[in-house]
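Researcher: Here's the sequence for the chain we discussed earlier.
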Amino acid sequence: MSTATVRSAKEFLYAWEGKDRQGRMQRGEMRAGSENIVNASLRRQGIMVTKLKKRKVGGGRSIKAKDLTTFTRQMATMLRAGVPLLQSFDIVSRSHPNASMARLITDVRNDVETGTSLSAAFRKYPKYFDHLFCNLVEAGEQAGMLELILDRLATYQEKTLAIKGKIKSALTYPIAVMIVAMIVVTIIMLFVVPTFKDVFSQFGAQLPGPTLMVIAISNFFVHYWYVLLGAIVLGGYFAFQSWKRSEAVRTFVDRALLRLPVFGPLIVKGALARWTRTLSTMFGAGVPLVEALDSVGGAAGNIVYQRATEKIQQEVSTGSSLTLSMQSSQVFPPLVLQMASIGEESGSLDSMLAKVADIYEEEVDEMVKALSSLLEPIIIVVLGILIGGLVVAMYLPIFNLGKVVG
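Model: Thanks. This is the structure I predict for it:
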C-alpha cells in the first residue's frame, strides 16, 4: 500500500508519450523505480509507449497546509472549467513549485488512472488529506458534483488557514519579544555584570542592595549556566512529550488556554469559528449529521471541543436534536445555540452555521488588531522595567562614587 511518506531522492519521475488502442496520442507522468515498470504498467492500460524521459525527483520542502489549500483551489477551478480530472492533475503537478507536493499529486493521479476512486486515492495519504477532506470528496463523487465540493473545500481551507494565521500572529509577537528579552538578560548577566563587579570590587565600600542582588544572580548564571540551559531544554522536551502522549496533559493545557486572561477569548472564538465552519461545510455537502460530526471535533483544534463533539454525536445518534445536544455540552455560547436552533427549525442549518463562522471570524480579526495595539505598550513597559531595573542597579554605585572616594 502507498504511504504518505516522502520518497527518497533516488526515485525518478518518468514523462511518457504513447498511443492508446484507438491510435490516439496520450501523454502523462509516472513515478517508478525503472523504465521497465513504466512500460509494463502502461501496456496493461493498452498504451504503447513511443517516448519515455526520466527526470530526477528533487527533495523538495515539506508539504504545508497552504500547499494543500492551493492544490484544492486549483483542482476546483480546473474541473469547473471542464478540464478532465487526469489532465487537471497533470497541469497542477507540473506547475507546482514544491517538488514534494508535485510528487504527492502525481501519486494520487496514478492511483486514479488505475481505477481507484478519487476519495480512495486521497485516503492513502492521511498525513495530508484528513477524514473531513476524504469524506467530502467521496460525497462529491457520489452526488456527481465534485467541482462544487472541491470549491467548498477550498473556501473552507482558505478561511481556516486565515483564522489560524491571525491567532498565530497575535501569539507570536509577545512570545518573540519574551525570547529576545530572555536572551538580552542572559547576555547582561553572563558578560556585562561580571565586568561591573570587577570595577566595584575596587571601591572598598558597601554596595547598594539592588546591586548586590543583581551580582548574586549574575554569579549564579556564570557558575550554573549549563544547569539552567539543560533544565530549560530537558523541561521543554519532557513537557512536549507529555503533551504529545498524554491525553490528560493535553486536556489540562487546552483548558488552561481557553481560560487565559487576554488570549483565552481569542482562542475560544477561533475554535468556535472552525467548529461551525467545518460542520456547515460538511452538512452543506450532503454528509449526514452524525457522520459529519466525526470530523468536526478535531477541526476545532482543542480537545475540550473535541470531547464535547463526541458527546454531541452520541446524543444525536440516539435521536436528540443538535441544539439540545450542544446545549448539554456547556461549551457553546448562546449565539451558536440560537443560530443552530433556527437552522434546525428552518432546514437551513448549514447557512446558519456559516453565518456564525463569519461572525466569529470577524471578531477574531478585530481582537487581533486590538491586541496588537494593546500589547505593544505593555511589552515596552515590561521590558523597560526589566532592562531599566538592571541598568539602574548596576549604576547605583557609580552615582555614589563621589561619596565612596571621599
